[in-house]
Write a structure and sequence with these properties.
- By secondary structure, the protein is α+β, with helices and mostly antiparallel strands.
- The protein folds into seven domains: 128 residues, Rossmann fold, CATH 3.40.50.140; 157 residues, Topoisomerase I, domain 2 (Orthogonal Bundle); 120 residues, Topoisomerase I, domain 3; 124 residues, Topoisomerase I, domain 4, CATH 1.10.290; 60 residues, no CATH class; 64 residues, no CATH class; 49 residues.
- 38% of the residues lie in helices and 23% in strands.
- It contains 21 helices and 34 strands.
- Strands 9, 10, 11, 12, 15, 16, 17 and 18 form an eight-stranded antiparallel beta sheet that branches. It has a five-stranded mixed beta sheet with strand order 24-23-22-21-25.
- α8 crosses α11 and α9 packs across α13.
- The longest helix has 29 residues.
Length: 746
C-alpha cells in the first residue's frame, strides 16, 4: 500500500521520512496553501449576509504547487495529513483535504508534539481525523481579522492615507502608546534613605517614632538626623529557613520573554530558531528533533519524561538534588493540548551536541534544556537572618541571607540573586555604637517602557491574543512603523499615536482590553465546541456596524484638518502631510497628482503638527544630498571614486558607478566614529579618507604577519570585529573555530 505524508516544512519532511522508511513518501505543503478570497462584497471573501460563509482561494504563487500536489496524491492509496498540532495546523490539513479533493476514507490526520522516532511511530499507529472544532476556531479568527483588517482599515485610510488596523495589533499599539504617555506625564518625587553603619554590619532606618518611614526631602532628612542617637540596642533577632523553587518549564510566552532578556533575541527570531530545533537537526548519522512543539501555553510534563529526568538527576547530581513534580496553578485561557517546551531527550546535553548546532541554535537549546532540568531539581534552601536595633522609638532593620543547600542553583543561578553575606555575631540585648551614616538622595522612577519581553508578558496577562501569535504581532508593529526600538524598548511613532487616537475615537471596543480578552475567551469556546461560531460573528459584526456609521459621519470633518508644509509641489502649492503604511510623507493637494515625498528619517515637531504647518524643506534637501553621496579621495583601480552614503545600518562607501561595477566597501568602526563626530578633514568638499584607510590596512597587515598560521589547522588568520573589539579568527571556520586576542604590542 502506497502512503503519502504531507507535513508543513521540508525540514520536518526530511526528518520524518528517515523515521518512517520505505513505503512512505513525505512531502511538504510549505505552510498555508489557501486563504480567504479578496472578492465579493467589501472584498472580504466572506458572505456576511449568508451566515458569514467564507470563500477560499489559493495563496498567491501556490496554484501550480497545489495542482502538482493534487497529481502526486492520486498515486497513493492512503494520505496522512501531519501538519502542526494546533488550530493553524488543523486548518492547513483541512485546506489540503479540500484542495486535493481527498475522500474521507482515504486520509488520516496525524499529530505529534515531538519529532522523535518513537513518537512518530506512535502517532502513525494511532491516526485520527480532522478536528473541525479547531478548524472553525481558526476560520472564525481569520474572518474576524479580515473584517477588522478590511472594514476598519478602509475607514482609517480616509484619515491616515494607508494606515491599517488589526484586532490584536491595535491593542498592542494602545499598550505601548499608553505607557509612553504615562512616562511623559510622570513627575519624579524626591525621597531620602538613611543607613547606619556599625562595626560589623549595617542596618537601614526603618521606623521613626514607631511610624513607617518616608523622607520626602533634605530638610526632613536633616531633622531626623539631628535626633538620631549614637547608641542602639538589639531589640530582636530572628533566623528563618526559607527556600526558593525553580521556575516551571517554558511555555511559548515565557520562552519568548526569557530569550529576549537573556539572549537579546526578538520573538520572531526565537520562534524561527525553535522551529528548526523542533523539526530536526543532523546529529552525526541521524536526524533528531531536539525539542517538543514550541507553541504551547502549558507547563505540563509527561510522567515518562519526568522519570527520565529523575534518572539523569540521580546519576549526575545525587538523590538530594531530586525535586518534586511542580504544577502550575490553574490559569484562564490555557490550552493544555500538549506538554510544555522541553528537550526530547535529557541526555542530549547542550555541550554534547554543540558541534552540530549553529551559534543561535546552541544558545536557545541551552536555555530550553537548562530551564527544563532546573524545573525538576530540588529547591535552593537558605537561612535568613533578620535583626532590629532600637532606641527612642527609632528602629533600624537589616537582613542577610546564607545559602545552605544550592539545589537548582547548582545548574542555573537566577539573576535576581539574594543578598548573601556572613551573619553578624549579634544577639538580642546587645548594644552597639554607630560608626557613620550613609545618607542618599533619590527620585521615584517612571514606569519602564515596554520591551519585547514585557509586552509579551503584558499581552499574556491581559488575555490578548495567544502566545503563538505574539511574534507576528510584534513583527507587524515594527514593519508598519507603528513603533521603533530605542535601547531595546518600544517607543511609539507618530503613526502609532495616530492609529491609537483614531481607533480610540471611532472604535473604542477594538481598543478595549477587556473586550478583546473576552473575545479571545469566546474564540476558545469555539475551539472546544461550546460556542457557535456564527453567533459570535453576528454579535461582533452588529457592534462593528454601529461604530462604522459613527466613523463615516466624522471622517469628512477630520479630512478638512490639513497639515501643510513649506515644500511646494510642481504647481507651486504647499504640499500636505499624510500618514501611510510606510510612514509620513508629503503629497500634492491636487488629488490627481501622484507627486509625493517620503518624510522617513526627518524630525517633525509635534507642536508644528498641532499648529497645522510643518517646516521640513531644509531637512529634505540635506537628506537628498546624503542619498546622492559625498565624494571621498579614494579612487578605485577602475578609475571610479568612492562616495560616502548612509543606509539602514549607517555609513558605507559605494562606487559612483555602482550600477556597472557593483563595488561597496564597509567602513571600520574607528572611521565611522570620526565621521559621526565630523572630525574628518575635507579638501574642496571632498572627504579625506584614503590616508586613514591606508594606515589601518598597514597596521592590520602587520598584525596578520606576526600572527602567522593557525596552530590547529595551519590556515591563515583574518581580523574580525566582535563585541569587545578586533580579534584574530581562523579562515578555516566553521571546521576550525580557533580565535585569538590581538596583543597590544602588535
Amino acid at each position: 500500500m502506497n502512503k503519502l505524508v504531507i507535513v508543513e516544512s521540508p525540514s520536518k519532511s526530511r526528518t520524518i521520512e528517515k523515521y518512517l522508511g520505505s513505503g512512505y513518501k513525505v512531502t511538504a505543503s510549505m505552510g498555508h496553501i489557501m486563504d480567504l478570497a479578496t472578492s465579493g462584497k467589501f472584498g472580504l471573501g466572506v458572505d456576511v449576509e449568508n451566515n458569514f460563509k467564507p470563500s477560499y482561494e489559493p495563496i498567491k504563487g501556490k496554484k501550480t504547487f497545489i495542482n502538482d500536489l493534487k497529481k502526486l496524491s492520486k498515486n497513493y492509496d492512503v494520505i496522512y495529513l501531519a501538519t502542526d498540532p494546533d488550530r493553524e495546523g488543523e486548518a492547513i490539513s483541512w485546506h489540503l483535504k479540500e484542495a486535493l479533493n481527498i475522500n474521507d476514507d482515504k486520509y488520516y490526520r496525524v499529530t505529534f508534539h515531538e519529532v522523535t522516532k518513537d513518537k512518530i511511530k506512535e502517532a502513525f499507529d494511532n491516526p485520527g481525523k480532522i478536528n473541525f472544532d479547531l478548524v472553525k476556531s481558526q476560520e472564525t479568527r481569520r474572518i474576524l481579522d479580515r473584517i477588522i483588517g478590511f472594514r476598519l482599515s478602509k475607514l482609517m485610510q480616509a484619515k491616515t492615507s494607508g494606515v491599517s488596523a488589526g484586532r490584536v495589533q491595535s491593542v498592542a499599539v494602545k499598550l505601548i502608546v499608553d505607557r509612553e504617555r504615562e512616562i511623559l506625564a510622570f513627575i519624579p518625587e524626591e525621597y531620602w534613605t538613611i543607613t547606619s553603619i556599625f562595626k560589623d554590619f549595617e542596618a537601614k532606618l526603618f521606623k521613626y517614632k514607631k511610624d513607617d518611614l518616608t523622607i520626602p526631602n533634605e530638610e526632613e532628612a536633616d531633622k531626623i538626623i539631628s535626633k538620631l542617637s549614637n547608641d542602639y540596642k538589639v531589640e530582636s533577632v530572628e533566623k528563618k529557613t526559607r527556600k526558593r523553587s525553580a521556575k516551571l518549564p517554558f511555555t511559548t510566552s515565557s520562552l519568548q520573554q526569557e530569550s529576549s532578556n537573556k539572549l537579546n533575541f526578538a520573538a520572531k527570531r526565537t520562534m524561527k530558531i525553535a522551529q528548526t530545533l523542533y523539526e530536526g537537526v543532523n546529529l552525526k548519522n541521524e536526524r533528531v528533533g531536539l525539542i517538543t512543539y514550541m507553541r504551547s501555553d502549558s507547563t505540563r510534563l509527561s510522567d515518562s519524561f519526568i522519570e527520565e529526568a529523575n534518572s539523569y538527576i540521580l546519576k549526575t547530581y545525587g538523590d538530594t538534588y531530586k525535586g518534586y513534580v511542580k504544577k502550575e496553578k490553574a490559569k484562564e485561557n490555557v490550552q493544555d493540548a500538549h506538554e510544555g517546551i522541553r528537550p526530547t531527550d535529557i541526555n542530549y546535553t547542550p555541550e554534547s551536541i554543540m558541534e552540530f548546532l549553529d551559534k543561535d541554535q546552541f544558545k536557545l537549546y541551552n536555555l530550553i534544556w537548562q530551564r527544563f532540568l532546573v524545573s525538576q531539581l530540588a529547591a535552593m534552601k537558605y537561612e535568613q537572618f533578620e535583626y532590629i536595633l532600637e532606641k527612642d522609638k527609632i528602629e533600624y532593620r537589616g537582613t542577610i541571607n546564607k545559602i545552605i543547600f544550592d539545589g537548582y542553583y547548582k545548574v542555573f543561578k537566577e539573576d535576581e540573586d539574594l543578598p548573601i553575606g556572613d551573619f553578624p555575631k549579634i544577639k538580642e540585648g546587645d548594644k552597639f555604637t554607630l560608626d557613620k551614616l550613609d545618607i542618599k538622595e533619590d527620585y521615584t522612577k517612571p514606569p519602564a517602557r515596554l520591551t519585547e519581553s514585557s509586552l509579551v508578558k503584558t499581552l499574556e496577562a491581559e488575555g490578548i491574543g495567544r502566545p503563538s501569535t505574539y511574534a507576528s504581532i510584534i513583527d507587524t508593529l515594527k514593519k508598519r512603523e507603528y513603533v521603533k526600538l530605542q535601547n531595546k524598548s518600544f517607543v511609539p511613532t507618530e503613526i502609532g499615536y495616530e492609529v491609537k487616537t483614531q481607533l480610540d475615537k471611532f472604535f473604542p471596543n477594538i481598543m478595549n482590553i477587556k473586550f478583546t480578552a473576552k473575545l479571545e475567551d469566546e474564540l476558545d469556546e469555539v475551539d472546544s465546541g461550546d460556542k457557535n461560531w456564527i453567533d459570535l460573528l453576528k454579535v461582533f459584526y452588529t457592534e462593528l456596524q454601529k461604530y462604522e456609521e459613527k466613523c463615516k459621519s466624522v471622517v469628512e470633518e477630520e479630512l478638512e484638518k490639513l497639515v501643510i508644509s513649506d515644500v511646494l509641489d510642481k504647481n507651486g502649492k504647499p504640499m500636505i502631510m499624510k500618514i501611510g503604511r510606510f510612514g509620513r510623507y508629503l503629497a500634492s493637494q491636487d488629488t490627481e497628482s501622484k507627486e509625493n515625498i517620503s518624510l522617513k528619517g526627518i524630525d517633525i515637531s509635534l507642536e508644528d503638527i498641532k499648529k497645522g504647518k510643518i517646516f521640513v524643506k531644509k531637512q529634505i534637501e540635506e537628506l537628498s544630498k546624503k542619498k546622492e553621496g559625498q565624494k571621498t579621495d579614494i579612487i578605485l583601480d577602475n578609475g571610479s571614486r568612492l562616495l560616502l552614503k548612509y543606509g539602514r545600518f549607517g555609513a558605507y562607501l559605494e562606487s559612483e558607478n555602482y550600477k556597472e561595477d557593483n563595488i561597496r566597501k564597509t567602513i571600520p568602526k574607528e572611521i565611522k566614529t570620526k565621521i559621526d563626530n565630523n572630525t574628518i578633514k575635507k579638501e574642496n568638499d571632498i572627504l579625506c579618507l584614503k590616508d586613514i584607510f591606508d594606515k589601518i590596512e598597514k597596521e592590520e597587515a602587520e598584525i596578520l604577519k606576526k600572527a602567522g598560521k593557525c596552530e590547529k589547522c595551519g590556515r591563515p588568520f583574518k581580523i574580525k570585529n566582535g563585541r569587545w573589539g578586533k580579534f584574530l579568527a581562523c579562515t578555516g571556520y566553521p571546521e576550525c573555530k580557533n580565535i585569538k586576542k590581538i596583543s597590544k604590542d602588535k
